[in-house]
Amino acid sequence: MSLAAKTLVIIGGSSGIGLRAARRAAAQGARVVIGGRDPQRLQRALQEIGHDARALQVDATSAEALRAFFAAIGTVDALFTPGASYRVGPFAADDTALAHSPFDGKFWPQYQAVHAALPYLAADAAIVLVAGAAGARPVNGAAAYAACNSAIEGLGRALATELAPRRVNVISPGTLDGELWQGRPAAVREAAFQHYADVSLLRRVASVEDAADAALFLLGNPAMTGSTLYPDSGYVLR
Ligand SMILES: NC(=O)c1ccc[n+]([C@@H]2O[C@H](COP(=O)([O-])OP(=O)(O)OC[C@H]3O[C@@H](n4cnc5c(N)ncnc54)[C@H](OP(=O)(O)O)[C@@H]3O)[C@@H](O)[C@H]2O)c1
């Protein structure tokens, strides 16, 4: 499916993977609508994306906000859901909110987003969810986050089955060079990137552009459904 003249909704389109996907799809002629919580961030992103893209404020942790968001958009041809915010911590921590955080901030927002979009999805709509390679190869000290990513991969397969002939796929990135890591202290980032390169087949950290490229491929390819792609530089296999 070409995205030209199609409505592509990106929740989490004001930064990182979502912003890169928005820029590229808009340049290819897609009618892009980005969602996110911070209105100033959305406005800055719109200037980068150009091509008459639109922005609507939405907090994807709220099912009600998601319903209003999709009602304001109308027909959706393609949906991409990188918008997430969560904390991670060790299994032994006596902190229920911390344990629930990845599911509250990443799994349920995507589940609810697809649910809220349902009345508006075109018959041949394509959806891409975002998990993370830490589901397949966990890092120490983030058990709930690993489980959340695996759950999102499972959700993708389940929705591909239940929503067919609409297509549903998942990207499961590893550590990416982008705003999320650029916002962390340089020493922390450099140590994490070095470690990631050391333990990945390709000896490199992937970029948010690499992950956006994988998402756009899945949105566009009419044979792809129920799959998970790992733009992870071979982290999972190493
Ligand atoms: N970057 C990595 O290294 C990496 C690795 C593996 C997996 N991932 C996954 O990839 C996804 C996106 O990562 P990224 O690097 O693109 O992050 P990012 O640069 O921090 O962008 C996150 C985007 O999501 C929006 N957002 C966050 N919480 C939201 C909410 N509750 N409702 C609506 N929008 C929300 C943010 O805008 P507002 O804050 O204004 O809402 C922003 O537009 C996440 O699921 C992350 O777990 C990333």
Plain-language structure description:
The protein has a single domain (7-229), classed as Rossmann fold, CATH 3.40.50. The chain has eight helices and nine strands. It is an alpha/beta fold. 45% of the residues lie in helices and 18% in strands. α1 crosses α8 (208-220). α2 links the parallel β2 and β3 (54-57). It starts with 6 loop residues before the first strand and ends in a 9-residue tail after the last strand. The chain binds NADP nicotinamide-adenine-dinucleotide phosphate (NAP). NADP nicotinamide-adenine-dinucleotide phosphate is lined by residues 11-12, 14-18, 35-38, 41, 58-61, 82-85, 106, 109, 130, 132, 173, 175-176, 178-181, 208.
Question: TL;DR?
Answer:
With 238 residues, this protein is of the alpha/beta class. It has helices at residues 16-27, 39-49, 63-73, 96-117, 143-163, 179-182, 186-198, 208-220, and strands spanning 7-11, 31-36, 54-57, 76-81, 121-130, 167-171, 176-177, 206-207, 228-229. Helix 4 links the parallel strand 4 (76-81) and strand 5 (121-130).
Percent helix: 40-55%
Note the run of SSEs as H and E.
Answer: EHEHEHEHEHEEHHEHE
Uncertain runs:
none
CATH topology: Rossmann fold
- Structure summary, number of beta strands: 9
Distance between the termini: 34 Å
The overall number of domains is 1
CATH homologous superfamily classification: NAD(P)-binding Rossmann-like Domain
Net shape:
globular
Work out the helix count.
8
Small-molecule components bound = NADP nicotinamide-adenine-dinucleotide phosphate
CATH C-level label:
Alpha Beta
Mean pLDDT: 97
What order do the strands of the largest sheet run in, or round the barrel if closed? 3-2-1-4-5-6-9
Radius of gyration: 17 Å
